[in-house]
Write a structure and sequence with these properties.
Number of domains: 1
InterPro entries: UPF0047_YjbQ-like, YjbQ-like_sf
Order of helices and strands: EEHEEHHEEEE
Radius of gyration: 16 Å
CATH architecture: Sandwich
Strand order of the largest sheet: 1-8-3-5-6
Structural class: alpha+beta
Protein name: YjbQ family protein
Shape: elongated
Helix content: 10-25%
Family: Belongs to the UPF0047 family.
Strand content: 35-45%
Distance between the termini: 6 Å
Largest sheet: 5 strands, antiparallel
């Protein structure tokens, strides 16, 4: 089986946001699969995806804090037409990555106990985002 669909996400503030439930709700067909892959891709250049701890919100805050220290807004950026947070957002998105490929087993994602899918919003007002979900399996 192959399936592809877009998942629109509401606008979120800058930060790292747990979105596992939204992704799973968008692909109920996953429950019918014994084995497969779910590919999740974000169609934006100033936001990214990561797989990380889903229990402690401190982890999400610490990831955001680290990204802001590693890629500061106050830098000699030349691309500044879209605001001071735009070019740092592009760099952060490149570092974190635009997609995840996740294993599917026995009707669910085969993730670690504490793993969850996170949207990393790198802009102050990034707006709504869209994920493309591609599910393949049997």
């Amino acid at each position: 089986m192959w399936l592809s669909r877009d998942l629109p996400l509401a606008a979120r503030p800058r930060g790292v946001h747990l979105i596992t439930r939204e992704v799973l709700a968008a692909v109920p067909e996953l429950a019918d699969l014994r084995v497969g892959l779910l590919h999740v891709h974000i169609a934006h250049t100033s936001a990214s995806l990561t797989l990380n701890e889903n229990a402690s919100p401190d982890v999400r805050r610490d990831i955001e804090t680290w990204m802001n220290a590693a890629v500061p807004e106050q830098f000699a950026w030349t691309h500044t037409l879209e605001g001071s947070d735009d070019m740092p957002a592009h760099v952060k998105a490149s570092l974190m990555g635009p997609s995840l490929t996740l294993p599917v087993r026995d009707g669910g994602l085969a993730l670690g106990v504490w793993q969850g899918i996170h949207l990393c919003e790198h802009r102050d007002r990034g707006g709504s985002r869209t994920l493309t979900l591609t599910l393949n399996g049997e």
